[in-house]
Amino acid sequence: MDFFHHNKTFLLSQFFIFCMIVVVSCRGPVYKPPEVEKLTDHFSRLSVNQGYNVFFGGANVRMTNNGSSADLILDKSSGSGLISKEKYYYGFFNAALKLPAHFTSGVVIAFYMSNSDVFPHNHDEIDFELLGHDKRRDWVLQTNLYGNGSVHTGREEKFYLWFDPTLDFHDYTILWNNHHIVFLVDNVPIREVVHNTAISSVYPSKPMSVIATIWDGSEWATHGGKYPVNYQYAPFVTSMKEVELEGCVRQQNTSATSTCFRRSTSSLDPVDGEEFMKLSQQQMTGLDWVRRKHMFYSYCQDTNRYKVLPPECTSN
């Protein structure tokens, strides 16, 4: 009887370990990033309705908490989106997002800047794109940018996140000035694009709107379109709050950037402030950690796609 009890206990323990392995492998490992400066603490958080208007899919945009937050919904009828009330030339732009859980293949959630409405053939763009997953695999975070209509050269980099983005809100931030573009997640830099001679011709250079959307990317988003959106799991809801829109606001009736003004009276200027001209040592440590542990694709390493890599890939 003792022998049977011992073997039963052993088998149960092994089964428990197996279950834990399955859960971890499905959800992916969770890591704690290095400590970094919290740049988001330097600027005021706005209610969503203070900074944004409905962009499209109005019936699928739901303001919550008296407009301080919003839900963006994708269902069979439509996706949805918000667009900033102002256009900005340089600045610091943030949104706290919580993503839909469960089966989200083909779903794309984007937080980005663009001026394609004003410059359809010569537009600039700076993108965060969160790509849904099949089964229980991780969300993928993709970053990209275009300048002066350079859409034929994709500058994508892809990452796995170090947390479950469906359980709570996390900050996604774009810092854009004349010195560099920095993509940050929870204040940790994940990518820096330095404004140098090699990339100057395609560096975003014109005022842009800030946009948040959820939409159907079945044709490409999940494993190259292998897994389309399954609307049996709809509606897909992403929640947004605590937005930050700090930068040069383009004055109405002019495209001249010299007339821009600051919305905030903060003494820290994300356009010219010394703190925002280059990454600190602490931020560089965070950037290196993300890129070593969590980045799994960079266009600068894709020699199948580019027989001659874009110039900025070989300029350092």
Keywords:
Jelly Rolls; 8-stranded antiparallel β-sheet; 33% strand; 316 residues; alpha+beta
Give an account of the 3D structure:
Its EC number is 2.4.1.207. Residues 15-28 have low confidence and may be disordered. The strands form two sheets. The chain has an eight-stranded antiparallel sheet. The protein has one domain (45-250, 268-301): Jelly Rolls (Sandwich). It contains three helices and 16 strands. It is of the alpha+beta class and 316 residues long.
Set out the fold topology.
Elements: H1 2-27, H2 48-51, E1 52-56, E2 61-64, E3 69-74, E4 80-84, E5 88-98, E6 107-114, E7 125-131, E8 140-146, E9 157-160, E10 170-176, E11 180-185, E12 188-194, E13 209-216, E14 236-249, E15 261-262, H3 281-293, E16 295-298
Antiparallel strand pairs: 1-4, 2-3, 3-14, 4-13, 5-10, 5-14, 6-7, 6-13, 7-8, 8-9, 9-16, 10-11, 11-12, 14-15
- Class based on secondary structure composition and strand pairing: alpha+beta
Helix content: 10-25%
Low-confidence stretches: 15-28
Write down the domain tally: 1
CATH class: Mainly Beta
Under CATH, the topology can be stated as Jelly Rolls
Write down the Rg: 21 Å
Name the strands of the widest sheet in spatial order. Answer: 1-4-13-6-7-8-9-16
| Alpha plus pi helix count | 3
Largest sheet: 8 strands, antiparallel
Separation, N- and C-terminal Cα atoms: 70 Å
Which series of helices and strands comes N to C? HHEEEEEEEEEEEEEEEHE
Total strand segments: 16
CATH architecture: Sandwich
Question: What value does the average pLDDT take?
Answer: 87
Apparent shape: globular
Strand percentage lies at 25-35%
Domain GH16: 24-240
Keywords: Apoplast, Cell wall, Cell wall biogenesis/degradation, Disulfide bond, Glycosidase, Hydrolase, Secreted, Signal, Transferase
Active site: 125 (nucleophile), 129 (proton donor)
Family: Belongs to the glycosyl hydrolase 16 family.
